[in-house]
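Hi R.,

Here are the chain sequences for the assembly we discussed:
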Amino acid sequence: MGRYVLRRVAQAVGMLFLVMFVLHLLTTLAIQLNGNPALAFFGDKIPSPAQVAAVEQRFGLDDPCYDQPGNPCLGPFVERLGQYAQGDLGTNLRGREVTDIVASAAPNTLRLFVMVTITWLVLGMVLGSVAARWRGSPSDHGIRLTSVLIDALPVFVLLLVYKEVVTVPLSGWAKETFGEDSWPPYWFKPSFDPEHPWATVAVPGILLGLAGSAAFIRLVRASQLDSYGGDHVRTARSKGLNEGRVVVHHVVRNSSIPVVTAVGLTFAEALSGAVITEGIMNIYGMGGVLWDAVQSSDVGLVLGIVTILTAVTVLVMIVVDIAYAALDPRIRYE
Amino acid sequence: MSEAASAATGNVAGAASRTLASDAWRSLRRRPDVIISGLIITFFVVMAAFPTLFTSVSPRHCVIGDAKIKPQGFGNEFPLGTDSFGCDTLAQLAHGSRPSLLLALVVVGTALVIGVTLGLLAGYYLGWVDFVVSRTVEVFLVIPYLLAAMLLLSLFKNVDLGSGTFTTIMLPAIVLTLFGWMGYARYVRASVLEAKNLDYVTAARALGASDLRIMFRHVLPNAIGPVTALVPTAIAGVIGAEAVLAFLGIGVRPPAISWGIMIENGSSWVLGGYPHMLLVPLAALLATVLSLVVLGDALRDALDPRLSA
Amino acid sequence: MRQARIATFAAGAAVVALTVAGCTPSDTVEDDGPVTLKLTIDQDMETLFPGDSGIADNIAILDVVYDGLVRYDPETKEPYNYVAESIESDDNTVWTIKIKPDLTFQNGEPVDAAAFARSWNYTAGHPELYSNYFFERFKGYEEMQDEIDDEGEVVKESPVEELSGLTVADDLTLEVELNAPFAGFATMLGYTGFYPVAQECLDDVEACAVKPIGNGPFQITEWDQGVSVDAERWADYTLDETPEDIDAINWREYAGASSWSDFEAGDLDVSYPPPADLAAAQEDPELSERLAEAPGAALTYIGFPLYEDGPWQDKEFRKAISMAIDRETIVDQLSGGLATPADSWVVPDGVPGGEAGTCEWCVFDPEAAKAALEKAGGWPDGETLTIGLSNDETEIEYFKAIGDSIEANLGIPYELKPNPDFSSVRSEQGFDGIFRNNWFPDYPLNENYLAFYAVGEEGAGNFGWYDKEFEDKLAEGDQAATLDEAVVKYQEAEAILAEEFPTIPFRFNAGAEYYSERLDDVVLDPFSGAVRVRALTVTE
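And here is the predicted structure of the full complex:
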């Protein structure tokens, strides 16, 4: 087990390095192709060469390699790695510490992910189990069709309609019914409130989770169907165990393995949804920050954030792998 | 002698897959949901192929003075109304179906070819080929494809490829394909591993059939079933992804049109009393995606013998 | 045992659910408590350092945190002395600025001549700061700049750290010498880049950029970057322009998201609806009473790549494009009341010297447009006209409509090229079709709308347009004896621009905001379009 973990960590470090290097190449190429982001600083003014030089230096883009398409800019990359090795993640273009940005953005995104994961787990386990248990029944078809319908509905439409149609009357109603100081008005606030982060992130998180739950429901249904057909279930039934016990003990439990794997991938997957959700609900989070960083060719910020994200994702995957071994007696890492 | 024997085994395998296919076809034909789905998809495919059958108006003819006209019904100037720029909604819907569907077809088609080939090679040869393919699959699986698409497309959105239908979808197509092939590779690899040791394959190999012949005549037909079932769902996924990319401004971009662009534009007007701007393209998208998923499910049920109990 | 593990998932979920329900809403507004004004800012603003603040948001915030030498009358747009006792000059080159006595910063340091000199010298010596270019007019600016070679590398750093044209005559008197006469100098002095800074601020500029030390009626207490800015009333404020009813201000950052739903839910004091909600807002009789409007000052205009060969080299072609655009209807359909069609290069009624109708060919006339296109030799077959613009959603909408108008009336197919690095493409002269431009004036004078066309040589600048006569007129204006005479010369320069027609005016932004029931005396700033917080009264 220990050796297995060690090997996974070594692989992870290698992958981290690979991802960082590829991203560095991509952002560098983007700057070389698209033009220098430093110039955007001047807007409509015509800067003097001295002003351009000073701003390039301030943005850390004064290395001439950024003006030569195809140049991999290894110098700045090695320099950056050196900084990372010392625990310094550097700054964004305008000199704000990356760690500072992540520290204020990450908690909100994590809250969002927690809500998404809960929604996925609850919907997936309940509806997936029902659909598998009564396979072919109207409820099975109903669940599958509804989940597909929600899945096909672009998530931004769901969020926009919620924000613009539902929130205002609902928060007004909640204020009248429960009073200004109570919780319900915050649940339905039209946008994120940094003073009440959990309450205001709950509904957007559930909606985002809802939109992505179809895949999860299918996953649970499919893996439970596999279990129902499996030898261990047949054996259990033939032993005369009652059906409830068979379902809970042999089917649901076994089907939780792929579900755990999928939860491990939630983090990365939900980030794409987070870009949209954070944008619409005005949540200051990682998705929005990363999105803006990419839009403004902010190499330092993109690399810093993706490094952190990849590190976390890989870590989560290792944890999931270990949980896997613990959950499934057939998997052993010697 | 060896020729005859391998031909014989080939026929056996061929016959097996043919019966599976015809069985599947027979069971699909009897399901009303499959028939309806098939009709809907055919309708939109015809629309994408021949948009002028449905409208004679150019989708690029937009007069701002005609903006935001509500649907007037068929037979009038603007049967489905106009959008906020005064473009005819019906013309946009008909012409917009092409980029949306073409993107999905190109992405899934290319991903299928790449995935099947790599999966086949990895499963058949194992060794270092398998190592390289499996590690690559893992790396790509870690990166969620929508996020990767967002990053890559916004970094390279200024790369100009031209303004034809095909070139406007080129960049999204490349990126979505890049992150869409892994599923097929894994499925095919697993089925190849299973099929490789079947008696008739061993027999074919013992009789000296070439690797290529074994792969395509004996191994692949076994693996193709579960992969075929994935295709409709994958197409649906790409159509949905196109809408999201359009919303973020990095997919197909105006003045080119696609269903995603229409939904993006319509979503800001749905509450201003002009719901048709959103509902028309959204209905088309939902109908297509839903049909594809129903078809995919039915196909899987029909092709996966373990489930057809 | 096995079930227990699954149960932990459920338990985890329950803990979260409890946390959601468990914390109490502690900071809700109490009726008798301090009055907090709730405003919004739009962009992801990066700094609050005066010399580096150039976007509408930090300008609006610093307006209540700092006091400038002059402030502007919302009606006449003329500057009047505020921190300055007097600003005088005999020749428009050497200016004497006297400062009111006994003013201090929020940390107790005096606001004196040295405080201004310190601020200006710092900004002039740091070309990476946004407001640096304002000091180009000061004597000694050139000497302060590092020497740069053609590659953009610094060859020699300048040892000079002070503007030679800036002297502290005594505690409360500043002497400024300009490179050349400039009648509009006093008008410039109310701009953010000319605010004074405390010594403590320069000692730690990074800290000061996040938490400024101002001399205005409000003090920044906390800026949670990307989320919100909080300010509190400064108890020791001595000058008179301060809103008596407001104890604190909270600016919520909405980078791209709409704040209208929050306004409707009663969580904001000021907001404006997105186009789809506008009709509903206008039809609400109660709400439409609470609308403040002001003509805006920002001009959006279309440029041609005159540095590239193409049909646009012919003035008739440029006229054709201009007359093919249905400004009136486009603005009417898309602006949601936040713009007016433009037919001049300087905003009419907005600034001294601004007059409507200076652009003869800014009228929608498809027939005349077609005739002009024919005269210019038509559009090459099979070519597509590209339209370069930034990545902004609103702009993409406007320019799609402009493109539609051109395509429908002239038969020229077009293609939009939105680009986040639009500005760099423009300054590198990288466009091969028409492109969007936007000018947000720094100070209220028609000269400010025209000066950037003076590029000094053939083929330079964003447009590759040069006209000696035009630049001479501007110089004449700068050297005029009085501001009024200067304005007339600048107007003559605008007339040359109108005749040569290198760019096409498209629209002026207009300011409009709906406000909450408790606000009164809501006036919008004529330049930024933001609510003038200092004039507000609040009734609870």
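Residues 98-296 of chain A form a domain with the MetI-like fold fold (CATH 1.10.3720.10). The CA atoms of residues 85 and 139 of chain A lie 55 Å apart.

Let me know if anything looks off.

Best,
T.
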